[in-house]
Amino acid sequence: MDLYDAQSWVTDVLNEISIQFQKVPGSAIFLRYVKSSYKNDPVRSAVELFLFLFAVRYLLAPTYKPQNNSFVKLSDEEIDELVDDWTPEPLVASQTPFEEAENEKRPVIIGPTGPKSKLSNGRTVTNLASYNFYNLVANESLKEKAIQVLRTYGVGPCSPPGFYGTQDVHIKTEADIAAHVGVAACIVYAQAFSTISSVIPAFSKRGDIIVADKAVNYAIRKGIQISRSSVWWYEHNDLGDMERVLERVVKEQARKPLTRRFIVTEGLSENVGDMVDLPKIIELKLRYKFRLILDETWSYGVLGRTGRGITEHQNVDPQEVDMIIGSLAGPLCAGGGFCAGSDEIVEHQRISAAAYTFSAALPAMLATTASEVINMLQTTPDILGPVRENIKSMWAQLDPRSEWVRCTSSVENPIMILVLKSEVVSSKKLSLQDQEQLLQDVVDEALANGVMITRLKSMPRGIHASAKNVGWELQPALKVCVTSGLSRKEIERAGITIRHAITKIVKSRR
Fold first, then answer.
1. Which residues does 408 contact at the CB level (< 8 Å), separation at least 6?
2. Could you give phi then psi for residue 253, rounded to 5 degrees?
3. For residue range 429-473, what is the model confidence (pLDDT) as tens digits?
């Protein structure tokens, strides 16, 4: 066969293929698409051809099989022996003798946790160990409203908010909080603890930067740990050190790819009780171009004329704070938590925050209770006055008069954190364990005299965080929670009882 005959044969074959292809339904449309595509954008046609050939090659490729010789074959006897020898690690550490003794003496309350609580042993004591600051537990209108909502909506939605767990009361509560705080939007979580620990990893990821106070609470530490971000710590409530850290971060990141940067702090510190200087932090955040995550778990419902929190107390525009996190379970005596901010901040969390996406929604009864309390704070802010007067009365009995302890809390904080004075610790050579035991003895002595208080109990560090990169440890302390459910004289008597218990226990320590 010469060259001419070969060309004729190839031409006949192609013509036959063309004729048969045109008989296929839709072939004309395909040919017209290829011709127009090649004419208008030949590069696109080449890419599509490559993808088509790659798909064909992928579908026709043999399946992958792992090499059998990469595994060690064990006999049934060897497997049984390994299973018998394996001992699982405990989920929690074993209790120390101190913890066992504490649990044995732990008081059990029978009935509601009011200012006067009845214990399982039959005694009635003054309760200064709960967050019932405004004695809302005894508010009959709140009880009646909660019962009405319970009968209408049931116990709980039993579904995440993004599925069918969101109810009209949740939408109303979010709107009420946003209006009260003074921002555009709000999102409500079912648990107060998991709010901040979900908000942080929803925005800050691996490679991003977080600058945080060394004394932040355990929920914040868990959120930072989950985010896997780079963490820079500054000394507690030391804004000079905070500025130094911010300046160092900006300098080191100047020639690196742009990352998200956050400042994380608390309005009222859970572990120390003092108050942050929010206007100064706003100034630093704007100067160094950071976003601010403000945890108002213990300041929302406490500070400000209407309980709006530290932004109202320190006359700061709440819209200058990127994210305001608060609790509905503490001062408001409801349940759950919230994050308030811009519309974009809130909507991002509805699909990115783990506690919102994967947890059942807040029970309607608690959402309605939170809305009712917020309405009370706005319409009758006078309910904040009695507890503030009682705080002053308790301060007068404890901080200036006691030779052994000092209060680290802000004067506006109804949670008084009492730590042993440094000269007492040094003179008696008390270790952290010694201080814990001594303060527990004070708690027991006060309870024996009819006043129930507690110790500060919190995780000082996140898991796997070493002393080198944290540099801060929780200082043992007493925790006294002031309430407006007691009269001024009752508060003064309770303060005297606590002071005498401290004196008796410390003096007996040799």
1. 272, 273, 274, 417, 418, 419, 477
2. -95, 5
3. 999 889 999 999 999 999 999 999 999 986 644 444 555 555 578
pTM (predicted TM-score): 0.81
Residues shown for the chain: 510
How far apart CA 178 and CA 448 sit, in angstroms, is 45
Alpha-carbon 320 to chain mean position: 21
Q: Which of 448, 459, 464 is nearest to 497 (CA)?
A: 448
93 vs 173: which has the higher pLDDT: 173
Assigned token pair, 71:
């595994």
Give the separation between CA 279 and CA 313, rounded to whole angstroms.
11
Task: Report yes or no: 451 and 490 within 8 Å, Cβ to Cβ.
Answer: no
Q: How far is CA 194 from CA 12, 36, 222, 230, 391, in A?
A: 74, 57, 9, 21, 29
Name the region of 437 (left: φ>0; alpha: ψ -120 to 50; beta: rest). Answer: alpha
Distances in Å between the alpha carbon of 370 and those of 4, 348, 408, 481, 490?
92, 23, 29, 21, 29
CA–CA separation, 130 and 331 (whole Å)? 10
Distance CA 298, CA 326 (A): 8
Q: What is the dihedral of CA 311, 316, 318, 323, to 10 degrees?
A: -70
> What is the amino acid identity at position 388?
R
Given this model, what pLDDT does residue 102 score?
A: 85
E strand or H helix that includes residue 110: strand 109-110
β-sheet bridge partners, residue 406: 419
Q: Where are the beta strands (DSSP E) in 226-330?
A: 230-234, 261-266, 291-296, 323-327
> Would you state the structure tokens that stand for residue 418, as one six-digit string?
């009492």
Q: How many CB atoms lie under 10 A from the CB of residue 293?
A: 25
In a 3-state reduction of DSSP, which class is residue 491? Answer: helix
**Residue-wise DSSP of 31-85:** HHHHHHHHHH-HHHHHHHHHHHHHHHHHHHSPPP---GGGS----HHHHHHHHHH
Of all helices (H) and strands (E), which one includes residue 185?
Answer: strand 185-189
Pairing of strands 323-327, 337-341: antiparallel
Q: What residues are paired with 117 via a beta bridge?
A: 125
CB 274 within 8 A of CB 268: yes
